[in-house]
Amino acid sequence: MIGLVGEASAQDAIYNWSGSYVGVEGGYAHSSVDFDADTTNFDGSHQKDGYLGGIYAGHDWQNGKFVYGVVGDFDFVGMHDTEFGQVDFLGKGEAYTYDVDWVATARLRAGYTATDHLLVYATGGVAAGHFQATSYDRPFFAPVGSTSKFSGVKVGGVIGAGAEYALAPNWSLKGEYLHYAFDKIEPGPGGTAGASFRPSLDTVKFGVAYRF
């Protein structure tokens, strides 16, 4: 009898990842934008470091040691403008700014329970972000310069991997790496002819979730 009770208690103690959850997250962000134009001295990759933070929510299903689910998040990005170019004291030359304000994702994730309380997983899906970009150009022969601007949402994709640890029946901690890649930004008429910005973002995030 005592053995049966002990066995039942051990089975009850096995953690079940199935269910919904909400959480808060924050961490490090590395922004990279590949720039190109018809004629420019500043084509190539321009980078900046910052931070991000926000919320996430999802739902998991468990089948044996395998866990699969859906998750979405929204993060504000704290990062000063990425600036590059060169303009002389007469205002002649080329100059560019680029910034990302927020990012959001809708993803699938699939993982394996290395232990009852430790889940390792891969994830991927769609991403959206709000960006701002400007292009200024004044050739040496031109009497005035011109500027083109973009401010809006771009979509793209996101992939990554992470690990989550169950602290208690209703709480868990996660660490996660995500790589985002977005559609090309073209500010439009004005500025440097053919100017385009191709954004990407790498993040390392930590979060705590309440699981229902």
Could you walk me through the main structural features you see in this protein, from its secondary elements to its overall organization?
The chain has 212 residues and is mainly beta. The protein has one domain: Porin (Beta Barrel), CATH 2.40.160. 6% of the residues lie in helices and 72% in strands. The protein has one helix and nine strands. It has one helix at residues 2-13; strands at 19-36, 44-63, 66-78, 82-87, 93-115, 118-138, 146-168, 171-182, 196-211. It has an eight-stranded antiparallel barrel with strand order 1-2-3-5-6-7-8-9. A hairpin with a 5-residue loop joins strand 4 (82-87) and strand 5 (93-115). The longest helix is centred in the N-terminal third of the chain and has 12 residues, at 2-13. It is elongated and about 75 Å long. It starts with a helix and ends with a strand. It is found in: Cell outer membrane. It comes from Mesorhizobium australafricanum.
Estimated radius of gyration: 23 Å
Q: Which ranges are low-confidence, i.e. pLDDT below 50, for 5 or more consecutive residues?
A: 1-12
Overall shape: it is: elongated
Structure classification = mainly beta
How many structural domains? Answer: 1
How much helix, percentage-wise, in residues?
Answer: under 10%
Count up the helices.
Answer: 1
Mean residue pLDDT = 93
Proportion of residues in extended strands: over 45%
The strand line-up of the biggest sheet is: 1-2-3-5-6-7-8-9
CATH architecture, by name, is Beta Barrel
Give a brief description.
By secondary structure, this protein is mainly β.
